[in-house]
Amino acid sequence: MTHPAWHTATVEEVRDRLDAPGHGLSTREAADRLAHDGPNALRETTSDPWYLVLGRQLASPMVIFLLIAGIVTLIQREWFEGAVIFLVVVLNSTIGYWQARRAEQDVAALATLATPVATVVRDGVTVDIPAPDLVAGDTVRLESGDMVPADLRITSTNGLRVDESTLTGEVLPAAKKALADDAADHLAADAPVGDRVTMAYSGTLVVSGRATGIAVATGHDTELGAIASLVQEDAGKTPLQILTDRLERTIAVILVVVGVAVFGVNLILGTGLGDAFRSTVALIVSAMPEALPVVLSVAMGVGVSRMAGRNAVVRHLPSVETLGSTTVIGSDKTGTLTVNRMTVEQVWTPDDGDGTACLRDGALTNDAEEHPETGDLLGDAVDSAMARIALDRSAVTTEERAAAPVADMPYEPEMAYSQTLRRGGDGRLTLHVKGAPEVVASFCPETAENSAGHAAMAEANQAMAEAGLRVIATASGVLDEPPAGETGVLPTPHDLRFTGLQGMMDPPRDGVREAIRDCRSAGIHVMMITGDHPVTAVAIGKRLGLGRPGDEPLTGRDMAGFDDAQLKERLKHTSVAARMSPRDKLRIVKLLKADGETVAVTGDGVNDAPALKAASIGVAMGGSGTDVARESADIVLTDDNFVTIVDAVRLGRVTFSSIRKGVFFLISNGLALMTAVVANTFTELPLIFLPVMLLFMNIVTNGIQDIALSFEKGEGDELAQKPRRRDEGVLDTRLWLRTVITGLWMGVGTLLVYRVASDQGLPVEECRTLALITMVMFNFFQVFSARALRVSVFTLNPFGNPLLLVSALAALLLQWVCTAWAPAAELIGLAPLTWSQWLMCTGIGVTVLVIVEIEKLVVRFGTWRKKKRTSASSGRVCSA
């Protein structure tokens, strides 16, 4: 829906559009509008039936193959194998179903921002009504502490300041004005929410003052409702889900093609229909990496546990890996990169003093109050900052601030200053003033315009402002007698002494600058995307080391003039984006994703929720963040610390590396098995493996070892690697090559052992047993080679993954028992082997580990040579 530019409309135009009389709506008229427009509440989305949600979890090719494999194995009375396969299906589907249901809570969290009661004028009388009964055209009254119940056009105000941080990201409350009709005409129609001084928006909080306004939008038509609509948009699948779906489809096609070919060849060669069918089904079941869903779930589960220990709570399992593949982090400023608390950072005095007088003046004309139990300062962010520094430096005492003033005038945006008259312990009256520098300077003769003192003050003020600081001036004067005027009312000050300037800002969090540097080393570009003022955002960005050569700040107004292609290009040279609306943030995220980036978004406010939901991964602040942000996010940081993201990125990369290791192990084993079986089909030899052998080997070689690879702790160089490309699969080109080489070698090696044994005239049972043990030994050493994808496996602690060590040795023991124990051997079709035969199989099996280590060594040498050439080239350029 296109909203009218209510902030630029005059009060009379608003009343005419909404037919809203000055004395308020009648009860009957309000009831009619409520019946027509609906309640002042966000619309709830309709959830899909449980069976549709569950059905989507069962629709993947791998799950369908698992179901078929499970049914076939049960028909063959392989009860244990069938039970394991169906357990995998149940586990995978349950996790997916749970994640889908959790996503429905996102929009529900927005409803918690609704205020239960609104104060309105009905039938000319001020009454309290349930907020859902509020309608467009109602006259609404606001007071300090109220939650704004709808979008309001302000008609009158007395010092109204509203905390809009959840919508805009600005830590300072926004001053609101009714504005005369001619002044309102000068507001830009496309002004961002933070600049619409005539409006108060639903879900924001009144910090101070009072106001009256006309409700111009309710429920889903409010700015908050617009955000709810954006949050409901489907964010699509995560990169890992896309990759695994593609891998599953590829494996399914290959298995079907190979299965049909093997079945056909067996029939042509004269194999009976039943035997050909059983052999083909057994081959498919054994070669299919049915443990893949379990490997994915376990690896991500281990990642979840590790991240929880580093203050990052994962809400959606695939997000564990996605953060590791992130190429861009779009971070909110307030409360994420900064501490979300104004802090005085600079104090300037005209006499180069210690600033005590300046601090006293700022703390003694001040509305911040101490919490009776915790002692924390509550109230306006500026007042709290000035009171905090004065107390910390002992410029004032708590008792002095608590003493009732003789008279005071609170800060008014129109006046741009506040003043307080206090009587000191010596009985003298002192007037304390703080406010805008130019205004306060006009009260002081020595800093009045065209004086030397004014020039020094103006220079200091400009320097602080350019550094992104909010500057407040202070002044004071001793009075011989109370100023003339009504009791408790202060006239305009004069003849004061200018005591100084205080520059304040919401400072960066400790460690964030270093975290951004680490992200850059890891190939991740960090962008600040905030609703705050551009000057403030750029200043914080400089302090954090954001930006690259040639980068320029971007504003929401700039974006409005760019089409998508132009904005994509501009984003390549942007590290700070300011005055961003929720829709602007969402547009940036979508364009970055469309440009092939994997985008992580961090934030804590309602204004961040749409971008959090649309990002490849949303990261919300757990402590200071709103419910909306947390429910829209995939990961919640319990310590609200951007630094935690660096740890999470590393752990995300470890998680994906674990997935790669498991997939490499599973697919290379499957390829080895298919190579041996398919190649043997074209020989005159009997079946190399009986169907029961294939199923048994599937349990022994792929039992728990592939899952145990998920517990690897990483290779130590995760943050030195660049993010993987968006189009890169679960296995990259290098790993696919390693998979093919090792898979073919294991298959060919097994077939050669079978052929040689057969040529030596050994019984077919012994030949098959030798082939089986060779394949088992190949897989035993292959799982250890898979522990390290880049470095030599011999650099890792051999006991660093005890589960893998125990499971691999247990599998060997099980294989030996089933070979040596006559009943089991007869059931499977095995024959006992001598120790020399076991040693021969072991020697052949270890060759796969040697092949992988040689391949890694060659790659490392090539990388070293490339770096050396690059370094030499750079050196020649520098010397020139």
TrEMBL record:
SUPFAM superfamilies: Calcium ATPase, transduction domain A, Calcium ATPase, transmembrane domain M, HAD-like. It catalyses: ATP + H2O = ADP + phosphate + H(+). GO terms for cellular component: plasma membrane. Residues 5-78 form the Cation-transporting P-type ATPase N-terminal domain. It is found in: Cell membrane. Belongs to the cation transport ATPase (P-type) (TC 3.A.3) family. Type IIA subfamily. This is Haloacid dehalogenase. It comes from Corynebacterium nuruki.
